[in-house]
Amino acid sequence: MKQNRIFCFYTSMNILSLIFDMSCLLCGHDDSFSEKYGLCRRCASNLLFGQESGSRCRKCSRLLISEDGICTRCRNESFLFDSNTSFWEYTGVAKDVIGLYKFKGQRRIGRFLALAVYRHLKRHSLLSALLVPAPCSPGRLRKNGYNHMEYVCRVLKRVHGIPFAAVLRRRQGRQLKKLSRDDRKVELVDKLYVKEKDKARFKALSQGRKVILLDDIFTTGSTASACAGLLKENGANCTDILTFALD
Question: What does each C-alpha distance from 6 to 15, 20, 219 come to in angstroms?
Fold first, then answer.
């Protein structure tokens, strides 16, 4: 009888583990951290505490080699945002983690990314900043069923009370990742917009606050610049960019 109860217990645990996978999505290790965030403590620590050190461009966040303050690329660009900060390079583990969240719908990773954002905001005394999630393409929205950047903002709002305004929208168009820098700029001209009903609300929310656009990957800066310009047109005094990875 006792053996039957033990067998039933372990059978139930195995079934639950199949339904509610609690293991680390990278290495397969189980701990309480991976159950909540999708990564075990070890894998999470490699990202949270393993950022590459060195002088970075104060505009785009790229590592500086011989330049001082601003990289050569940014000296020749007229970005409409004030600065970008990227947590990681878009390679290796960081690329895998973002891919699991953006393309595989692993929402536990979204909670981990929210944790990374919170740590950054707290470290730099930006907990009162207004976050704006980058808009999702209609195709991606239909496929995933949610805006992955807005989900991160919702976690930050629910857990830490950090305000956000999901006011940016994007019309259907070509995939930006397949376009050159110049083509991206042209593509974004009429594709980004703010609904009339959201304009007054955003202006009121952004008054006296730093506005931070949250996006997943910083590539050419075209999307970030177009979004920042639109936010400034609608009342933001200054707009910084916060991205998870730099490509």
Answer: 14, 21, 54
